[in-house]
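Risk register update: the risk of archive-format incompatibility is retired. Evidence:
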Amino acid sequence: MHRHPLKSFRTKALWAAFAALAILAAPESRAAGQAPAAEHSGAEHSGAEHAVANLVTLKVEAMIHDRVVRLGDLFEGIAEPALAETPVARAPSPGATVDIGARWLLAVARAHDLNWQPRSRYDRITLRRASHRIGTEQIETALRVALADRGLSGQLELALDNPSLELQLPSSDDPSIAVTGLSLDSASGRFIAHVIAPANGEPVARASVTGRAVMLTDVPVLRRDLRPGDVIRTSDIEWISMPVNRLTRGTVSSQDSLLGMSPRRPIRSQQLIRTTDLQTPVVVAKNSLVTIRLQTQRMQLTVQGRALENGAQGDVIRVMNTKSNSVVNAVVIDTGNVVVTPAATAQSN
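Archived output:
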């Protein structure tokens, strides 16, 4: 018939208490003056004091730095140093935490003649294995070095498929890491690699790492939203890092390509800008009145005209003489001023 462990434990404890009471009561039942009985009682008392002196207590928790758990990691008050150093179990994995219950602890105490009894079946100790943690940041640093050896140097954006990846090493080992077996698809930037730790000697921890590596480059963008008619100035420009594979042939990549230009259509801040999004600022608006200058080597004539289309500085636009209604091609000089040459006038006529 199977007995419940707690009932068995209580039964043994009661028998032990009964035996102790019997020993203590024995001298009272004997006649006074019997020397052998007095001597025996003194020996019993000395043994009880020795037992109390050898009592050990259970620790609440312990940090394990070795690969094994020793008696001294579990109990306090072990008088013999050699006994305290006795291995009793394998240590938890680096960084792991385990709880040890009363039944196992009692078996260990009895096996090594330790004077310890659990107060209840809920007595336990928490063991934590000391470790070196190698986190994502250290893993990414090692990956960047390995990818640079494969030609991906400079600004590099890494996106790990498992961003919470980490390795745990015993606290006695060197917390270094090495990348082995790197495989890279240069077109997509996808990679797979194996990391081991420590970097030298026999690996204690290893893991597979997958993700994407993308080259970055700095490009100019607008600091604020701009609309057609606005002129882009230095204060309107800032730089951001973008994946190279997001850029097209028409993407503006230099500040000089933006300065003095005007949006052809509304451009939002932080938006990639294409050359087709820009135009030179309009200084002559369609249907606006302009001064038409006719220049020759001997004279210069001016007449009022009307612009038939928008024009930036240097553009050739069509303008109409408001008096004769004749239309000529003119070069935009600045705001409200255009110039024609006799050859352009003759060609228009």
